[in-house]
């Protein structure tokens, strides 16, 4: 099984081979329709450079790689669910399944550089407004960030629209704002627009991703990696949530005085209006 997430991870490519790896990651859907001359032209390298590339990644040639791509494209949602069901039904039970997600936390911690994390915290803490884009399953991550950081007095907007409606959200983004993007699996057109818009308008971006190789990594100002499982597996949100919670606490510490003040005011409001809005248990 070919895994586009880890296929190029940790490999030291030449400049030409890195161009090919980046192109394949961003245009994997086009590869089955291409010949080596097409790929060479797209990457601005020689055909011989393309021919040598396949051996670097464990394929015999382009035809062999295409076959692996076809197999990978069979990784549908049903197949991912089947993988999750198999794990739960292997006789180890729910406890073992829960503990199994700890490996995603370990992988995330192994990839995390303290300097990268501190820079991300500084960016989030100093922004006028945070604009959160979490499409699909990442919507829960954006909601969690919004809920927690708003309590600390951080200005937060969620970008919930895609397609042409994304332009409405772009109107709200200022030069001193930060766009937080949850970019999993691949770079969508919306993510490409957000990254390009940020570059054109001078605002900063934080990309939280499970990709080790992607063109998004170079376009974003700050990147944090979080593991979610192999491409053909049912993706876990355990590690992304842990990353988000750690970021939230660190931002709260940077804004400690305001965070405490907001907490006190929140408790006062709850007490004052508890007759009208009793706390739900």
Describe the structure.
With 281 residues, the protein is an alpha/beta fold. It folds into 2 domains: 15-72, Winged helix-like DNA-binding domain superfamily/Winged helix DNA-binding domain (Arc Repressor Mutant, subunit A, Orthogonal Bundle), CATH 1.10.10; 102-255, Glucose-6-phosphate isomerase like protein, domain 1 (Rossmann fold, 3-Layer(aba) Sandwich). The protein contains 14 helices and 5 strands. It has helices spanning 15-26, 36-43, 47-56, 62-72, 77-88, 93-100, 102-111, 114-126, 139-151, 166-170, 189-201, 215-219, 238-254, 256-272; strands spanning 130-133, 156-158, 178-183, 204-209, 222-225. The protein has a 5-stranded parallel sheet with strand order 2-1-3-4-5, sandwiched between helices. Helix 13 crosses helix 14. The chain is elongated.
Summarize the structure in short.
The protein has helices at residues 15-26, 36-43, 47-56, 62-72, 77-88, 93-100, 102-111, 114-126, 139-151, 166-170, 189-201, 215-219, 238-254, 256-272, and strands spanning 130-133, 156-158, 178-183, 204-209, 222-225. With 281 residues, the protein is α/β, with parallel strands linked by helices.
Topology of this structure?
Elements: H1 15-26, H2 36-43, H3 47-56, H4 62-72, H5 77-88, H6 93-100, H7 102-111, H8 114-126, E1 130-133, H9 139-151, E2 156-158, H10 166-170, E3 178-183, H11 189-201, E4 204-209, H12 215-219, E5 222-225, H13 238-254, H14 256-272
Organism: Paenibacillus stellifer
Protein name: RpiR family transcriptional regulator
Pfam family, one: HTH_6
CATH class of the largest domain: Alpha Beta
Number of helices: 14
Question: How does the major sheet shape up?
Answer: 5 strands, parallel
Arithmetic mean of pLDDT: 85
The H-and-E topology, N to C, reads as: HHHHHHHHEHEHEHEHEHH
The helical percent reads: 40-55%
CATH topology of the largest domain: Rossmann fold
Oligomer: single chain
Note poorly predicted spans.
none
Number of domains: 2
First CA to last CA: what distance? 47 Å
